[in-house]
Specification:
With 170 residues, the protein is an alpha+beta fold. The chain is 23% helix and 21% strand. It has five helices and five strands, in the order H-H-H-H-H-E-E-E-E-E. Strands 4-3-2-1-5 form a five-stranded antiparallel beta sheet. It is globular. The two termini are 29 Å apart.
């Protein structure tokens, strides 16, 4: 049964379709990233599996819109601590409990399928990074809004291979 579900999820991931809207944040230079295509925020990454796999997860796109309002701002402007503040930023946006200032503490939340509105954790030397998925590129890489990205809130493409976990924002 697990193999059948895995096969269906893989097939769904390959069949995903995205809109042609560009996902570059305001004041962002075109030459930094290849053209990005965003999936409509009302749809899940797995499209037709939305009702079966992600029942009850509808607040994600409202968190994305809330996070997007802070793009370009510093920790001080957001109103959070100014060191290691990616997790503090997400707590402010989502109101999540059970997480602390460590990005990887979000991995204790319920793991979910890749989708707009999911929180993603990423490993890096000496710690981690965390943000909220605002869309996907044509190749399936997530577009993530996160705090403490070059000392600002930013919306950027991260390679899918960097993602450690896809979790619920609440």
């Amino acid at each position: 049964m697990k193999r059948a579900i895995s096969a269906l999820l893989c097939a769904a991931a390959l069949a995903v379709t995205v809109s042609t809207a560009e996902a570059r944040p305001r004041n962002h230079h075109r030459h930094h990233h290849p053209q990005v295509v965003v999936q409509q925020e009302e749809q899940s990454f797995f499209g037709g599996f939305q009702n079966g796999l992600q029942h009850g997860f509808s607040a994600g796109s409202s968190f994305v819109e809330r996070a997007r309002q802070f793009v370009g701002e510093t920790a001080h402007q957001v109103g959070v601590r100014s060191t290691l503040w990616c997790s503090a930023f997400l707590r402010k946006v989502t109101g999540a409990t059970g997480v602390d200032d460590r990005a990887l503490s979000w991995e204790s939340h319920r793991h979910i399928a890749p989708q707009v509105g999911a929180v993603v954790t990423m490993g890096r030397r000496g710690g981690g990074h965390v943000g909220i998925v605002s869309g996907f590129t044509k190749t399936g890489d997530p577009i993530v809004i996160s705090g403490n990205h070059s000392h600002h809130v930013a919306e950027s493409v991260y390679p899918r291979r960097r993602i450690r976990a896809w979790v619920s924002p609440t």
